């Protein structure tokens, strides 16, 4: 299978503001341009990969206050076959507003036994009682072959979509519980002890 990774940094040159006449009462929020022209297309094309082959995105924000604007623009690039996503606020260089790295894996090629490795993608869109609904344009997890790539989880109560109270003492166990349920939904018997890498 073809694999590669890429990284994109976004500064003020890649950002658009709302036009003044659209909202004169508030400071125009930052609007993310489409990711497509920012991706290193030479890397993707050289490996005969496409945007649909991206299975996991790490999105690093300088300020989580920009999340809503970035989230609304993110979907303009990933309209179909949404990759799983992990989003965190972190320290970035002064001129960088957010940074992205992607894991890309071509899953629609033939292997020796003549079979394919299709993607399995759960996408929780409505209020449920087993896992939080998606709060953005991403998939809860993507499974390719025997490997699963879950999205980041926060301590939302699935039935209300509100953050649980109690800070880290209750948030951490609930986030891990959501992760476990998503893993089990894709493959029965999968547990937290099967996790090879985690971002916290």
TrEMBL record:
One of its GO terms (molecular function) is diphthine-ammonia ligase activity. SUPFAM superfamilies: YjgF-like. It comes from the Eukaryota. One of its GO terms (biological process) is protein histidyl modification to diphthamide. Signal peptide: none annotated. This is Uncharacterized protein LOC103000372.
């Amino acid at each position: 299978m073809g694999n590669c990774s890429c990284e994109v940094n976004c500064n003020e040159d890649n950002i658009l503001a709302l036009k003044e006449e659209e909202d004169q009462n508030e400071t125009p929020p930052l609007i993310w341009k489409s990711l497509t022209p920012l991706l290193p297309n030479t890397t993707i094309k050289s490996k005969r990969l496409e945007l649909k082959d991206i299975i996991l995105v790490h999105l690093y924000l300088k300020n989580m206050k920009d999340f809503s604007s970035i989230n609304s623009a993110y979907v303009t690039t990933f309209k179909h076959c949404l990759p799983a996503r992990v989003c965190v606020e972190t320290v970035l260089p002064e001129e960088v507003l957010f940074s992205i790295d992607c894991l890309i894996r071509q899953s629609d090629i033939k292997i020796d036994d003549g079979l394919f490795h299709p993607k399995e993608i759960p996408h929780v869109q409505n209020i449920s009682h087993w896992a939080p609904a998606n709060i953005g344009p991403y998939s809860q997890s993507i499974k390719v072959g025997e490997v699963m790539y879950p999205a980041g989880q926060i301590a939302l109560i699935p039935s209300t979509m509100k953050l649980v109270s109690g800070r880290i003492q209750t948030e951490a166990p609930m986030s891990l519980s959501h992760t476990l349920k998503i893993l089990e939904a894709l493959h029965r018997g999968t547990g937290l002890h099967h996790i090879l890498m985690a971002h916290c």
